[in-house]
Amino acid sequence: MRRSTLIGGSLVVVFFLAAWLIKGAGASGESPYYSAFLITLAAFLTLAVFSFLYADNPVYKFAEHLFVGVSAAYWMVLGFWQTLVPNLIPRISRALSEQLELEYIDELWNVLYVIPVVLGILLLLRLSRKLGWLSRYAVAFIVGTTAGLNFIAYTRSNFMAQISSTFLPLVGDWTSWAAFVDNLSLSATGPLALLMANIVVVLGVVCGLIYFFFSREHSGTFGMASRLGIWILMITFGASFGYTVMGRISLLVGRMTFLLRDWLGIIAS
Amino acid sequence: MPPAPGARSIASGGRVLILTLTLITLTSSLLATDPGPGSIAPPTLIMVNDLDYDNGESLTISWVPSLDDVPGQSEVVAYRILRSSGGGQEATIGTVLAGESTFVDQSVNRDSAYVYRVATIAANGGEGYSLPTDAVVPNREWLNWDLVWLFLACLVLGGSVVFFIETARRGKKLFVRKIAGLEAIDEAIGRATEMGRPILYIPGIQDMDEVETLASLTILGKVSRQIADYDTQLFMPVARSLVMTAGRETIKTSYLEAGRADAFNEDMVRYITDEQFGYVAAVDGYMVRERPATIFLLGAFFGESLVLAEMGNSVGAIQIAGTARPPQIPFFVAACDYTLIGEELFAASAYLSGEPRQLGSLKGQDVGKGIAMAVILIGVAAATIAELTGSGFFAGVVSTLQNVFTTR
Q1: Cα distance from A25 to chain B (closest Cα, Å)?
Q2: B281 and A63 in contact by Cβ < 8 A?
Q3: Cβ contacts of residue A159 below 8 Å, gap of 6+?
Q4: pLDDT of B14 strictly over 50
Q5: Does 3.40.1350 match the CATH number of domain B177-353?
Q6: Quick one: closest CA in B to A61, which residue?
Q7: What CA–CA distances, in Å, run from A110 to A89, A104, A120, B54, B266?
Q8: I want to staple B33 with a disulfide (CB 3.0 to 4.6 A). Which of A74, B42, B174, B193 is the partner?
Q9: What is the Cα A94 distance to its own chain's centre?
Q10: Is the pLDDT assigned to residue B172 strictly greater than 90?
Q11: Domain ranges of chain A
Q12: With an 8 Å Cβ cutoff, is B171 touching chain A?
């Protein structure tokens, strides 16, 4: 380890230790030093991640490795206790269920739960050089089932629902001058705005579909419609981009609020 | 002016009729109910319906609210639903707030008969019980006829895919238009090879039950085959253990096909963590430290898409991205060199391989899009004519199409 790294690291540790002790001394409650420690640790990790904005550094590396290690272990434990245990144990063993304080589910179909157990064991066989090939059966089962289930789900949501939502009239009530004048309202919920929305939806869906035609050359009128389709998509993406960036800014505001209010106490609650 | 004699007789007859109806209503109300303490009016017309096309697992109980259940007043606080089965003891199975008039009982067993009563619960503790309903048996239906149009749609789409796969197999050449992002793959891998820097392949953060992950792994097969030919370094960090297994299998197969089995190393695919931003932290760290020349971001992405794409951009990598998640596509468009938009990601494997089977599948999907477009145009034309002319026929056409394409 380089000397400058060592000195820098020591300074960081001293700074946050001091911050913890000062925060603990000024805090109230049942265990002020413990809660101050948690807040200071969270502030340290937040700043450690922010330090990446300047450059990659040992403090960021520490936060990164800590985050990855803790979260990997956490998800493994979560998967075991929240997926495997409650779904499997109450269906395969009364004794184990009682041991784990779970209600035993006595059903005829329990025998089918042997299938996922076998598939799970097959997946674990990857660790064996000789029998590793058996794990492919489990993966193939997952991939095949996924493809089949998603075919129905997507046909329903992305195909049929999209079609039925596009049966929109492209005219309003334009049968008389009076109706025409009434419809010229610029209100966002007025008939003119709704009519414009209908036109954009129909045009967007049809031209978007044309853009995603792969088995035909995009030239001539077809090409023009395709270009209009990609323009509509890009405008939509632009609007979506702005909307999501606003969401990200609110995340930043959340972190800054934590640092300035909860940790430093600079801004009032 | 005095009323005409005829009118007087009608008015008198009307009064008699109203009086008779009131008496009948009061009598039937008294006969049909069993007021408890506090004598609050019970709900009436209790109906129990078996849900259509289900597995015989629920019954819907509906009623006309108590006459004392007046909006804005708090005389009635709730309705209690009581159930008995096979002559057994009656038990409360649920309570709903005043003003509500339905309850779905999902704790029934198929082929058992159930009898229900609904009681009005008053604020002063009084209760008014309805008469018991007839016994109702929840039935299982083997076929869900609500989904018949969905079934036909799947049949048409699946059939057209199978038809074109067979057509392609018989040797008919199928055209696929150019997709810019995929044309650039050769250039991107060549660049990494020339620079002697690694290629980073990110398959998204979802599991194998996500079609985008499947599409990404199919593309990985083609990309890694080329990487094996060029002898370039490949690294694929994953957020799901199953993707790691499938990724390793895919790359291994590609390396075997390229005759470079010795160059395959299982560490090319490494599990990081399931945690979204833990994964991002690790991948960002890798990008800064190893400076990959080429980055593929193909698969299912969420909030991490912008962070990853921005970081890849900042280290100067050529980036080819693709996802079917509309909210994430703008970030890829903004920060990557090439973006596969939605369907293009799924078309990529057919495009890259040129295999008749996959090209046939692509053509079959295009038929589906053609059908969708034709139906939309018919529906829009009918809706427009109906709006212009007020024609009942065209309104009927729109209504029929809506029924066909709306699945419950």
Answers
A1: 33
A2: yes
A3: B153, B157, B368, B372
A4: no
A5: no
A6: B285
A7: 10, 11, 16, 22, 37
A8: B42
A9: 37
A10: no
A11: 107-165, 171-263
A12: no
Interchain CB contact of B362 with A (< 8 Å): yes
Q: What is the pLDDT of residues B17-49, one digit of tens each?
A: 444 444 444 444 444 444 444 578 999 999 999
CATH number of B36-130: 2.60.40.10
State pLDDT tens for residues A73-127: 999 999 999 989 999 999 888 899 999 889 888 888 888 888 999 999 998 898 8
A162 touches chain B (CB under 8 A): yes
Q: Where are the domains of chain B?
A: 36-130, 177-353
Amino acid making up residue B24: I
| Residue B150: both structure tokens together | 């969905």
Q: What percent of chain A has pLDDT over 70?
A: 94
ipTM above 0.90, yes or no: no
CA–CA distance, B81 with B34 (Å, rounded to integer): 15
> Which residues does A12 contact at the CB level (< 8 Å), separation at least 6?
A59
Put simply, the chain B residues between 198 and 257 with a CB less than 8 A from any chain A CB are: 208-211, 214, 242, 245-246, 249
**How far is Cα B244 from Cα B271, in angstroms, rounded to an integer?**
6
| SS3 category, A53 | helix
Question: Given pLDDT bands bounded at 50, 70 and 90, which one contains residue A70?
Answer: very high
